[in-house]
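Data deposition worksheet. Section B asks for the primary sequence of the deposited chain exactly as it was used as input, without tags or linkers unless they were present during the calculation. Section C holds the resulting structure in token form. Section D is free text for depositor observations; keep each observation to a single sentence. Incomplete worksheets are returned to the depositor.
Section A, Depositor: J.P.
Section B:
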Amino acid sequence: MNKSNIKHGIAGVLILTLIFLYEYYKSDKLLSNHNYTIGQVYDFTRASRGGRGILYEFEINGKIYKGITPNEFNREKMLSLKKKHFFVIFSPDNPKNNGILLEKSINKDLYDIPPQGWTKKPLGCPDIK
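Section C:
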């Protein structure tokens, strides 16, 4: 191995480490400080590393935000989620940092959703895992 390959390898490891640390920080921050709202699954996509992703959207203060969550559901299960509503957690400081709680679909019409979301867990919302 020449020095150029070693430098590229070290740079690659550093970049991957920084990405991992950033994602961990973002996830930890979301779990420690979040609001709740309701979002809707609208489509599916191929996620990184060959997996599948569930695409969802939700509204905060009149603005639509989108999210994607990886999953291992089979095709039938994924199709059953489309157009269904679920609770979403999001960072009040940055709603682009969010996650959907797919444990149980809900009837959105039963809830009066505040424009900025709920600061406390609403009735019927599953626990965050």
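Section D:
Residues 3-32 form the longest helix (30 residues).
The helical segments are 3-32, 75-81.
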